[in-house]
Amino acid sequence: MRQATESVTIRTSGQALYEFTRQARAFVTESGIGTGLLTVYVRHTSCSLLIQENADPDVQTDLIGFFRRLVPEGMDWLVHTTEGPDDMPAHIKAALTQTSISIPVVDGRPVLGTWQGIYLFEHRRRPHAREVVLHLIGE
Amino acid sequence: MRQATESVTIRTSGQALYEFTRQARAFVTESGIGTGLLTVYVRHTSCSLLIQENADPDVQTDLIGFFRRLVPEGMDWLVHTTEGPDDMPAHIKAALTQTSISIPVVDGRPVLGTWQGIYLFEHRRRPHAREVVLHLIGE
Amino acid sequence: MRQATESVTIRTSGQALYEFTRQARAFVTESGIGTGLLTVYVRHTSCSLLIQENADPDVQTDLIGFFRRLVPEGMDWLVHTTEGPDDMPAHIKAALTQTSISIPVVDGRPVLGTWQGIYLFEHRRRPHAREVVLHLIGE
Asked: What is the pLDDT of residue A26?
């Protein structure tokens, strides 16, 4: 049984979904591990992780649109406002999605469905460098 | 240290919660692994996974009712509409719940609480065959 | 490769976020495992887990305020009402957050970001003793 870890930096420029499926697949391939468990973890609380459809980009537009409507800027009862109007909504959106996702690896590949992609979901307006840690255990 | 993997097909017929706790428990028992980590992963983006109460079925009714109200069909700003009025709401509901859940295994059993069941949460109206991958690592 | 497991009881007194980052870190340190995967699992369905900012306590106030507004008590269409007006909203809030979170461990520490804390999110009004299972695999 072996392990591999890697840190990936994803540079974001506004509220959107940033796919990094290719990097995650490459990490698994390079490890030489055939059967195992891949975990993806994001070290921030104003962005998050999501596995979603990567076929029609309209799906991403609508996901972003839904979360913007569900957690709008300007909710007047918020008390954490010092870091800008998009910060507290960002924390809430992160709480509603994932900080960590684990994916089984079989035959040397994560068992993603045909149309599943792994995304960083950026909830802040300004550019950020986001650190994602990849961990793999298996043999 | 050993691993086991299995693919389970869950046939759904409409928006509901489909319990597969029994299959997950059997998978752990058959592996002979006493201490470890069980991961459940669904290979689709219009259904999801949920650990919820399996005592009173009214809880499931209300969970479905809440998500239907939070993410109704017919939101007129949606752009991804080609796959039917229930498709984009399904992606959103999946984003709000889980694609992957990991459960520690102790004494040869997943450490589910007394009333916890593992469910596939189907968000589409029409019947689907959903593939869930089970992964176990331990000894 | 080795494993460690531990059960932690968190005593709650009302709807709030209860941080247990310190206990999780201590569990990893005491195991002597340098590289691995830490999984945190809660054995209940009316509370949940969250990784969120532990710098400004206002963030917690707003998270609680948002979920209270999104899933208010008194929704008149609920059918599961026998366990009190806060019970079904608690199940829904748990479904919208996490039951299980996995965090890579590198250099003997979970790779939590600088401001990330691990929280039990209690959704019930009355005091409860909540059981969280910690699992670590690595070497």
From this structure: 98
Query: C 109-138 residues with CB below 8 A of B?
Result: 131, 133-135, 137
Structure tokens at C99: 């039951």
Q: How far apart are CA C20 and CA C54, in angstroms?
A: 11
From residue B3, give the alpha-carbon distance in Å to each of A36, B60, B108, B138: 8, 33, 14, 7
Rounded to the nearest angstrom, the gap between the alpha carbon of residue B35 and the centroid of all alpha carbons in its chain is 23
Q: Which residue does chain B place closest to A105, by CA atoms?
A: B135
How far apart are the C-alpha atoms of C10 and C20, rounded to whole Å? 8
Q: Are A136 and A37 within 8 A, CB to CB?
A: yes
User: Which parts of chain B sit beneath pLDDT 50?
Assistant: none
Q: Supply the DSSP symbol for A79.
A: -
Closest CA to A116 of B133, B21, C78, B35: B133
What confidence tens digit (pLDDT) does each residue in A73-110 have? 999 999 999 999 999 999 999 999 999 999 999 999 99
Phi, psi of B30, rounded to the nearest 5 degrees: -65, -25
Residues in B touching A101 (Cβ below 8 Å):
99-100
Cα gap A7→A128, rounded to integer Å: 16
Averaged pLDDT, A122-127: 98
pLDDT tens digits for range B51-70: 999 999 999 999 999 999 99
Are C113 and A43 in contact (CB < 8 Å)?
Answer: yes
pLDDT single digits (tens) A50-59: 999 999 999 9
The pair of three-digit structure tokens given for residue B4, joined into one six-digit string: 């086991």
List Cβ neighbours of C68 (8 Å cut-off, separation of 6 or more).
C15
Count of pairs with CB atoms under 8 A, one residue in A, one in C: 86
Those residues with Cβ within 8 angstroms of residue B61's Cβ, 6 or more apart along the chain or in another chain: C79, C80
Does pTM top 0.95 for this prediction? yes
Residues 6 or more apart in contact with residue C34 via CB below 8 angstroms: C105, C106, C107, C108, C138, C139
The rounded distance, in Å, linking the Cα atoms of B132 and B98 is 12
Pairing of strands B36-42, C16-19: unpaired
Predicted local distance difference test score (pLDDT) of residue C78: 98
Distance from CA of C95 to the nearest CA of B (A): 6
Which residues in chain A touch residue B128, judged by CB atoms under 8 angstroms apart?
Answer: none
Checking DSSP bridges between strand A36-42 and strand A100-106, what pairing results, if any?
antiparallel
Categorise residue C130: left if φ over 0, alpha if ψ from -120 to 50, beta otherwise.
beta
